[in-house]
Amino acid sequence: MDIFLYTPFNVALNIIVVFASILVLWKGADFLVDSASRVAERLGVSDLVIGLTVVAMGTSAPEFAVTMNAALRGQPDISVGNIVGSNIFNLGFILGTVAIIKSVEASRRLVYRDCVFMILVTAMLFFFFRDFMFTRLEGAIMVAALAAYLIFLFLDKVPLEDKDLPHDKATWKDGLVLPLSIAAVVAGGHLLVGSAIYLAGQAGVSQWAIGVTIVAAGTSAPEMAASIAAVLKGKHGMSAGNLIGSDIFNILGILGLTGIIHPMAITPGAFSSFLMLNAMVVLVFVFFRTGWKISRTEGFVLVGIGIFRWVFDFMK
Questions:
Q1: Which residues pair with 294 in a beta bridge?
Q2: H or E stretch including 93?
Q3: Rounded Cα–Cα distance for residues 223 and 219 (Å)
Q4: How high is the pLDDT of residue 316?
Q5: For the chain, does the N or the C end have fewer beta carbons within 10 angstroms?
Q6: Where are the domains of the chain?
Q7: Are 115 and 169 a contacting pair, CB within 8 Å?
Q8: Three-class SS state of 134
């Protein structure tokens, strides 16, 4: 049975799938945060580092699937646009929403090491696409930069006083819970996108509107679920680290690997989105640096920028 063919039964079924996928997302994120924290403790690294690596890479799986699939199908605008759009969404809607729910605290390491690196990575992306071409060599440089960053993270030991809240010791069960919870979060996001696209289409919403709203939000749903779950548990490092790490991994890992496999050319119309992304990462750095947190007021500003970006896309 094709649940994406129009029948009253399928409409009802997809509504149920939407609510079920949201439940899977939230429960998966809850288990993910707890398990990742215990694994971080066992490895002797901070929640920030585990958020920047394991959690960030796991929740970026939908972006990886969409970007790689679009590139192989000869759709570079979708491939690159997915990464740029997802990063703007992460730093606008998601980080802003998390801050509105509960202010996101930041450490000096997060601001001066990871946020600064995110700014440099985003500037490098803009530089590589200045001629609207992305070569295999540029992709290889990005992947190499990611490898160097990950090695540095695990070698840069965090003093005990900089670590997040204490948590239970990891057990053998976390070796199963961690990958299964990542899989649950990713699967929940995938189901949410498919059913939401179907329902929006039946409601007469255009394909473009669906693409810049539902697909962008859906592929970022794992990041939102994990970050909100983390900050509600007081694990600010993992919450912020997940979003910043996802943005770094999206550019260096996903786009870099995609470029190695399939060099790309994009349209000049993407220029404004690159500029907005660069401005967004600088603004997030400034917000984190002033008061060492993203306040609720700053969260509303970030969400407002995200809404402006959607309106701008609709008017293009």
A1: 104
A2: none
A3: 9
A4: 55
A5: N
A6: 50-159+204-315
A7: no
A8: strand
Rg of the chain over all Cα atoms, to the nearest angstrom: 19
What would the two tokens of residue 125 be?
């992306």
Q: What b/e sequence results for 241-264 when a residue is b if at least 16 CB atoms lie within 10 Å of its CB, and e otherwise? A: bbbbbbbbbbbbbbbbbbbbebbb
N-to-C CA span, the chain: 38
Bridge-partner residues for 58, per DSSP?
Answer: none
Give 12-52 pLDDT, tens digit per residue.
Answer: 887 787 778 767 776 776 777 677 767 766 777 677 787 78
State how beta strands 104-105 and 293-294 pair. antiparallel
The one-letter amino acid at 290: T
Confidence (pTM): 0.77
Query: How would CATH label the architecture of 50-159+204-315?
Result: Up-down Bundle (1.20)
At residue 186's C-alpha, the angle toward residues 181 and 192, to 5°, is 125
Structure tokens at 84: 């740029």
Distance from C-alpha of 300 to C-alpha of 234, rounded to nearest angstrom? 20
Q: For position 140, what pLDDT does the model report?
A: 96
- Average pLDDT of 164-185? 69
Residue 277: burial class (beta carbons within 10 Å; 0-12, 13-18, 19+) = buried
Question: What's the helix, strand, coil split of the chain in %, to 5?
Answer: 80, 5, 15
Q: What is the pLDDT of residues 81-124, one digit of tens each?
A: 778 888 888 899 899 999 999 888 888 888 999 999 999 999 99
Widest Cα–Cα separation across the chain: 59
